[in-house]
Amino acid sequence: MHDQAEMLRKRLGDDKKQAKVCAIASGKGGVGKSNVTVNLAISLAQSGSRVIVLDLDIGMANLDILMGVHSKANIVDLVEQELSILEIVENGPGKINYIAGGNGLNRLFQLNERQFEHFTEQLQVIHELYDYIFLDMGAGVSKDSLQFITAADEVLLVTTPEPTAITDAYAMLKFILKQEPATKVSVIVNRVENTTEGREIGKRIQLASTQFLQKEIQLLGVLPDDEVVFKAVKQQIPYMIHSPSSPVSRGMKQLSDTYKKGSEMKEMQEEGFIQRFSRYFFRKQGAK
Questions:
Q1: pTM, whole model, 2 decimals?
Q2: How far apart are CA 264 and CA 267, in angstroms?
Q3: Closest among 117, 106, 132, 128 to 23, alpha carbons compared
Q4: What does the pLDDT read at residue 164?
């Protein structure tokens, strides 16, 4: 593992460090979560950060298609074939790296102890090499995916102005906080007609969380409903690259600047992602 880290470190030109792990999730499908993930990663990379995205969206693991790139291997191969992380890290657009999800991704949430040890050893390699690790989670939440979500340093919850999306986002927030009240959660409102609409929706979710869940959450930002997004997806080019001066790209730039500033000001946590992830895994094993 040390040799792997040294090799990748030379590629990235960085010293040993610890990445911030962020799970990006949504209460329902179709809110643009994966698009937000990719373009946020690219925006951060454009500002000089080192970012890697892991596709953990069961049933919809399609980040490589969204980016118009091809993956030689994926995260399932990493576990089942005991590959090194270097063999599955791919170069994505805009100087980001990514790891594809692949078919059978649901098996990743059912690791035995040997697979778990290998998986966490490999995660540690990238944990020391990047500024940010984004986990693109599937819509909704299960007891298995919750292990990743609550182990992350932060959760970004993506919603839209649609009433069903708002309701599902709150339901997911409630479920996450019931399992792990200390989880830091921020909300992104996507596809808004105007900034005022997005902020009002964010405030409603914040108020409901404070009143009924006794948890303060942050509205990270809002993104406009921009036809550029559809055009970019159709051409398999992230909109931050396809149309960098478009309203949605400008909105993402502002959102990513806010996110990065908040990340730099964050307090060190007693446990890191891998420690929390391991604790949840062995707790689950003990419950069997």
A1: 0.91
A2: 9
A3: 132
A4: 97
Q: What is the mean pLDDT of residues 188-206?
A: 98
Task: For the chain, list the domains and their CATH numbers.
Answer: 2-258 (3.40.50.300)
If pLDDT is split at 50, 70 and 90, which confidence band does 2 have? very low
Classify residue 109 by its DSSP letter. G
Task: Give the sign of the dihedral formed by CA 8, CA 12, CA 16, CA 20.
Answer: negative
d(CA 285, CA 288): 5
Residue 131 has pLDDT above 90, yes or no: yes
Contact 180, 172 (CB under 8 A): no
Alpha carbon distances (Å) from 60 to 29, 100, 175, 221: 10, 11, 22, 25
What is the β-pairing status of strands 218-224 and 185-192?
parallel
Phi, psi of 125 (to 5 degrees): -60, -50
